[in-house]
Design a protein that fits this description.
By secondary structure, the protein is α+β, with helices and mostly antiparallel strands. It has two domains: about 1-25 and about 185-220, no CATH class; about 30-170, Umud Fragment, subunit A, CATH 2.10.109.10. The chain is about 35% helix and about 15% strand. A six-stranded antiparallel beta sheet has the order 1-2-6-3-4-5. It is elongated, with a radius of gyration of 24 Å.
Amino acid sequence: MIRRPRERFGPAAAVLVVALLLVTVVGTWPPLVAVESGSMEPSVERGDLVVVTAVDRFPWGDPVGSDATNPPTRLDGAGDVVVYTSPVDPRRPILHRVAFRVTAGEDWTDRADPDLLEGADCTDIATCPAPYDGYVTYGDANGEYDQTAGIAPIVHEELVHAKALFSIPYLGFLQLGVDAAIARFGVVPAGVGIVATVSLVSGTGAFLVGRVREGWRTRNDRKGGRRPPR
C-alpha cells in the first residue's frame, strides 16, 4: 500500500505540534523530564515521565521547601520538587525536593533534619555556612541532603529552571531510549531514525485498523444479505 507523504508523516508532525504547544504552556524546555534514577522513590520511580513548568510561570513563585508552614504538595510529598543543574555534573539535571531556602553566611544545619545530616555539623560540610543564597535539596529515597552527600552544593536560584507538576508512570523509558540513541548516533541520525520509526508504526497501525474495519464491514454486509463490494 502506497501512502501519500501527508499520511506518512502526519503523525510525526502532530507530535511536533503538540510538543511546541506544551512548551508554550509550561514555558520551559524540555517540558517533560524522564527520571533516570530511583532517588525520588516511591513518589517518582525510574522510567516515569515528569511534566514540569518554568519556575516563574503563573501562578508559581519561588520554590517552597518542605519546612514551610503550609508547603505545597508535589509528587506525594511536602515541598516543591525542582529540576536544577548541578555544577558537579552539568550534563545531568537533577530532580529533587526543596528542603528549605538559605541565605549567604547562614549555618543552615540549625534548621536541618538531624536524620538527613548523618551526624555531620556545619564544620563537616563544604557548603556550610552557605556561600550564597540558595536552596538545600534532597531526594525522597536518599538518606541525606544533596549538600552533605556531595551531590551538589547549595543550589543557586539561577540553576533552578523548572518545577515538577506530576508524573506519568513508565512513559519516561521512551525518552530515555531517545536520549540513548542521540548519545550513540548523534542528533541528525537519531532524529531521522525516530521519524522513520514513528511513520512506520503509524502506517502499520493505520493499515491494521483499516483491515479490521473492512472485515467488520464485510461481515455486516453478509449478515444483511448484501454482497461485499469487489
